[in-house]
Design goal:
Blueprint: E1 2-11, E2 14-23, E3 25-27, E4 31-34, E5 39-42, E6 45-50, E7 53-57, E8 59-61, E9 65-69, E10 79-81, E11 99-105, H1 108-124, E12 129-132, E13 139-143, H2 146-160, E14 164-166, E15 170-171, E16 174-177, E17 181-191, E18 194-206, E19 213-217, H3 219-222, H4 227-243, E20 254-260, H5 270-286, E21 290-304, H6 308-317, E22 321-328, E23 331-339, H7 346-354, E24 359-369, H8 372-377
Parallel strand pairs: 19-20
Antiparallel strand pairs: 1-2, 1-10, 2-9, 3-8, 4-5, 4-10, 6-7, 6-9, 11-13, 11-14, 11-15, 12-13, 16-21, 17-18, 18-20, 21-23, 21-24, 22-23
Length: 381
């Protein structure tokens, strides 16, 4: 049996997971293995959905779409199969969020209910993320655009009755390195009568655009580490990459190779190894000529032909790059690449330039090197 969770919704406060079965038969009460999370979940009930009406069923076969309850940790894009025959589907491609928004509950009741509401919204939308700023204590929402986060805030009030105050949307940048760097780091400290020690040698190499983070453990240099400590080392490096080195934005397009991580029985500890890995990566990244990457959006605009020149001029002022133009009836279709930082409030500008007749759509395309003026504005230039 193999199924894909393609949609998760909060229905009357409960989690309802929509499944598409690709093979086999699924019964209510079956124990399933979640390939993306290496865990097991038990299906409580199965329903065949007819709009908002549910029809309870005891089984579903390949080709059917059903809704299931009881899958508490399954999210959109997860694969489900039998524990004795584990399978992993390709799943869904989820882009990283590119805009952040600070929110604060308006009242005491809102503050108490806010965490549960945000959790339910994250069930439904894999591109929506929530975290707490460690320095300010603010709740930060991140998503795919200004409109995306506006709809999230509106749903919080309309569907859940939770009112929040919001700050200004902020671009979520990324950090990367411009040159390769190696670093040897040793951590040693005595705590509660025991020596906590860890030692690593790291090599950081910039990767091609869109390559993300690639963490590799050299088999020769890390062979002595027990499997549990190897996993600790990977997690520590991943966390250090998420914290960045320049302005606190996540690192990306970077290959992190652990050249050496010696294991001394009775001395090397999990705490020591974690501290050495995180400190070593952060300091190495700072010496690797770090810089910022900004998200670039792919735009498609439909504007009246007589206003096309004015719209093109405005796009160029926003550091836009025109990719192509086409005629569609009396309108011009313009395709362009524009940094997201230049797109806040653009709908108002477009309506003004086209007397309300222009429209546009945009989606994330890629990250590109941020200009020097952006580095100076963020205090890292």
């Amino acid at each position: 049996m193999c199924a894909l969770a393609f949609k998760v919704v909060a229905d009357e406060g409960r989690k309802l997971t929509y499944l598409r079965l690709y093979s086999g038969t699924l019964h209510a009460g079956d124990l399933l293995w979640t390939g993306n999370r290496n865990g097991e979940e038990r299906v409580a009930r199965l329903f065949r959905m007819h709009a908002h009406r549910r029809e309870k069923v005891e089984e579903a076969v390949a080709g059917e779409i059903v809704a299931a309850t009881g899958l508490h940790h399954v999210l959109t894009g997860d694969s489900l199969s039998r524990p004795e025959e584990p399978l992993l589907l390709q799943g869904l491609s989820v882009p990283e969020p590119v805009v952040s928004l600070a929110v604060e509950a308006k009242g005491v009741d809102d503050r108490e209910r806010l965490p549960a509401v945000l959790e339910k919204l994250q069930w439904e939308d894999p591109t929506f993320r929530v975290h707490e700023d460690a320095e300010t204590g603010q709740t930060i929402l991140t998503g795919m655009g200004e409109l995306h986060l506006e709809i999230i805030v509106d749903r919080m009030l309309r569907e859940f009755g939770v009112a929040v105050k919001t700050g200004r949307p902020q671009v979520v940048y990324r950090e990367t390195l411009r040159r390769a760097i190696e670093r040897h780091e040793i951590f040693q400290r005595e705590s509660e009568g025991r020596v906590q020690q860890g030692e690593v040698t790291l090599r950081l190499v910039p990767g091609p655009g869109g390559s993300g983070i690639d963490i590799r453990l050299n088999p020769e240099g890390t062979a002595q580490l027990p499997p549990l400590l190897q996993e600790t080392l990977r997690q520590s490096l991943q966390q250090a990459c998420a914290g960045g080195a320049l302005a606190g934005f996540p690192l990306t397009d970077l290959a992190v190779e652990v050249l050496q991580a010696p294991f001394l029985p009775g001395t090397t500890s999990e705490i020591g190894l974690r501290a050495a890995a995180q400190r070593g990566l952060t300091l190495a990244a700072r010496d690797g000529d770090p810089t910022l990457l900004e998200p670039v959006m792919a735009l498609e605009l439909i504007v009246p032909e007589e206003n096309a020149g004015r719209v093109l001029g405005a796009l160029q002022q926003k550091r836009g790059r025109i990719e192509g133009m086409a005629v569609r009836g009396a309108d011009q279709v313009i395709r362009a690449m524009v940094p997201l930082a230049e797109m806040f409030g653009y709908m108002t500008d477009l309506r003004s330039a086209t007397k309300g007749r222009g429209t546009y759509s945009m989606e994330f395309s890629h990250f590109d090197r941020a200009p020097d003026e952006t580095l100076r504005r963020l205090g890292v230039g």
